[in-house]
Amino acid sequence: MGVEPATWFWLFLTFAALVMISGLYCFLVTFNLLRMLIGLEIIIKGVTLLIIAAGFLSGQLALAQAIVITVIVIEVVIMVVAAGLIINFHDLFDSLNVKNTRSLKG
Amino acid sequence: MITMAILLVAMALAALWTVTANLYLRATIALALTSVILTVIMFRLGAPTAAVFELSVCAGLISVIFISVISLTHRLTLQEFLSRRQNRFARFRYLPPLLIAAALAMYFARQPLGVSLPWRETVTDARSVMWDLRRFDLFGQVMVLLAGVFGVVTLFRGAKNRDGR
C-alpha cells in the first residue's frame, strides 16, 4: 500500500494497545460483573486486531484468520458461560455488584 | 493509509464509548459498533473469512447474549441511575490521560523498537489452513464448544431449581 511495514505495524500496535488499555481500565475500576465482561470483550477486540495486523504484515493472513476464528469461538463460549454465571449471581444476591459477595460460603 | 487511520481512530473511540457508557444497553450497542468497525478493518486488510465470523458472532450473537442478560436483571431505580451517572466521570477520569500517555509512549518508542517485518505476499487459502494445518486445533475447538454448552445447561438448570419451577 506504499507505506513501510514498520509504520503500519506501529499504527496497528498503537491503536490495539489503546483499545486494550480501555478494556483493562474498565475491568479494573468497576465492581459490576456485566461491565467487567464488557471490558474483557474490549480487550479481546484489541487482541483480534493485533493478530490480523500481524498476519497482514507478515504475509500469513490465512493463518491469522484461522487463529482469529479460534479466538472468536473461545470468546463466545466465555461470554455464554459468564452470562449464565452473572444471571445466577443476580438470582442469589439481587445485584451485579461483586462487593455483595462477602456472604459467600467457605 | 488515511482511511485505515480513520477506521482505527473510530474503533478506539467506539471502545472508549463502550467502557464509559452509562447504561448497559448503550454499552452493548457501542460494543457491536466496535465489532462492526473491526469487521471493516478486516475486510480492508483482506481477511474476509474472519471478518464474516466477527460480524455474525461478535456483533450479532454476543450482542444478543448481553441484551438477554440485561433483560433478565432488575431495572435500575432513579436513585441508582443518578448515582451511577455521577460516579461515571469520577471513575473514568484517569482514562483519557492514560490513553494520551500511552499513545505518546508508543510514538516515542517507535524508533527504539526498530521493527523490520517481512513483507511477503504468500497468499494461501484460509480454509486449507483451517482444515489441513490446524486440524487438531479444530478438535480442541469442538471440545471447548461442548464444554460451553454443558456449562450453560448446568448453570441454567441450577437457576431453575432454585426458583422452584
Task: Record keyword descriptors for this entry.
heterodimer, A: 106 residues, mainly alpha, Helix Hairpins, B: 165 residues, 2 domains, 8 helices, flat
Write the layout of secondary structure elements.
The complex is a heterodimer of chains A (106) and B (165).
Chain A: H1 5-29, H2 33-58, H3 61-93
Helix pairs in contact in A: 1-2, 2-3
Chain B: H1 2-20, H2 24-45, H3 48-72, H4 78-91, H5 95-108, H6 110-113, H7 126-133, H8 135-163
Helix pairs in contact in B: 1-2, 2-3
Describe the 3D structure:
The complex is a heterodimer of chains A (106) and B (165). With 106 residues, chain A is mainly alpha-helical. Chain A has a single domain, classed as Helix Hairpins, CATH 1.10.287. Helices cover 79% and strands 0% of the residues of chain A. Chain A contains three helices and no strands. Chain A has helices spanning 5-29, 33-58, 61-93. The longest helix of chain A has 33 residues, at 61-93. The termini of chain A are far apart. In chain A, 48% of the residues are buried. The mean pLDDT of chain A is 86. Chain B has 165 residues and is mostly helical. Chain B has two domains: 2-110 and 125-133; 134-165. Chain B is built from eight helices and no strands. Chain B is flat. Chain B starts with a helix and ends with a helix. The mean pLDDT of chain B is 81. Chains A and B meet through helix 1, helix 2 and helix 3 of A and helix 1, helix 2, helix 3, helix 5 and helix 7 of B.
